[in-house]
């Protein structure tokens, strides 16, 4: 039987855990929470984006959106298979929540958790049209890459291995989001609409990095599940998306208008 002190000492020395029998109940609880958040977010994100496929302006965009939905469901499947090793029932899990359900767009949950499924709060908000979907995808996929890159270095080796495989696909989704936003702006869509979507989604995506008041980070660091805190990860994301938005003549909330080069080319 693995003891808590021995496990903490083992992972502090760079050790990796390889199976459910190697973990303590407390470690298991934090690990299952992280995996549940990922699975629920992929399920909810894919389900919500599936509703947007027919909003896409062309066949190529619809095919791309369909591929993203398919891959996100498959990512959920891969991590859910790890959860099955801890006793989760895959069939019951998939049918446990209405994954495509959304709240009213005027609601802002901040970092306050909803009861029920463990999806990130950003996946409780509805998408309003194709440009809105593209902006949300562009911002959220960059956040996903930042967070999965951190989690792929964690102390539970089977999860780290799965996330290492998933991460390049999510990076591709982030690139597709950027190209999708560029394409919509080049089609002549009013930047006012895109800016309104940035204003809506930017703070909600920022909230996916969690609350500075949460004690989960302390536990995650103790167990070697992650090392970077909310502020560092959030700053990393902001360092990516602010220049990205600037290239499109869009403004990240909180940035001054003179920080944006309005003459920037979309070529």
Overview of the molecule:
This protein is mainly α and 267 residues long. It is 60% helix and 0% strand. The protein has 9 helices and no strands. Helix 5 runs antiparallel to helix 6. It is globular and about 65 Å long. It starts with a helix and ends in a 20-residue tail after the last helix. The relative contact order is 0.12. Residues 258-267 have low confidence and may be disordered.
Helix-strand layout with pairing:
Elements: H1 4-12, H2 25-50, H3 59-84, H4 90-94, H5 130-151, H6 157-186, H7 191-206, H8 216-222, H9 230-247
Helix pairs in contact: 2-3, 3-6, 5-6, 5-7, 5-9
> Which structural class best describes the helix and strand composition?
mainly alpha
* Global morphology: globular
- Sheet-strand content, in percent, reads under 5%
Rg estimate, integer Å = 19 Å
Portion in helices: 55-70%
Distance between the termini: 60 Å
What is the strand tally?
Answer: 0
Stretches where pLDDT is under 50 for at least 5 consecutive residues are 258-267
User: Helices and strands, in N-to-C order?
Assistant: HHHHHHHHH
Return the average pLDDT rounded to an integer: 90
Largest sheet: none
Number of helices: 9
Which descriptors would you attach to this protein?
single chain; about 270 residues; mainly alpha; 9 helices
């Amino acid at each position: 039987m693995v003891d808590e002190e021995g496990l903490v000492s083992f992972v502090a020395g760079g050790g990796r855990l390889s199976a459910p029998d190697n973990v303590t109940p407390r470690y298991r609880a934090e690990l299952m929470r992280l995996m549940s958040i990922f699975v629920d977010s992929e399920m909810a994100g894919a389900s919500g984006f599936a509703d947007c496929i027919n909003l896409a302006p062309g066949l190529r965009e619809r095919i791309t959106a369909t591929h993203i939905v398919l891959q996100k469901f498959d990512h959920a499947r891969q991590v859910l298979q790890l959860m099955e090793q801890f006793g989760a029932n895959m069939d019951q899990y998939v049918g446990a929540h209405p994954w495509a359900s959304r709240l009213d767009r005027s609601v802002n949950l901040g970092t306050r958790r909803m009861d029920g499924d463990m999806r990130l709060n950003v996946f409780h908000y509805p998408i309003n049209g194709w440009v809105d979907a593209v902006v949300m995808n562009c911002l959220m996929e960059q956040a996903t890459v930042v967070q999965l890159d951190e989690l792929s270095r964690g102390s539970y080796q089977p999860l780290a291995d799965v996330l290492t495989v998933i991460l390049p696909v999510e990076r591709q989704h982030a690139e597709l989001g950027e190209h999708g936003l560029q394409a919509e702006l080049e089609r002549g869509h009013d930047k006012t609409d895109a800016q309104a979507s940035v204003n809506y989604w930017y703070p909600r995506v920022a909230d996916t990095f969690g609350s500075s008041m949460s004690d989960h980070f302390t536990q995650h660091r103790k167990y070697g599940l992650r090392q970077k805190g909310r502020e560092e990860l959030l700053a990393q994301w902001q360092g990516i998306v602010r220049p990205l938005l600037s290239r499109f003549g869009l403004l990240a909330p909180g940035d001054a208008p003179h920080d944006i080069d309005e003459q920037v080319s979309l070529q």
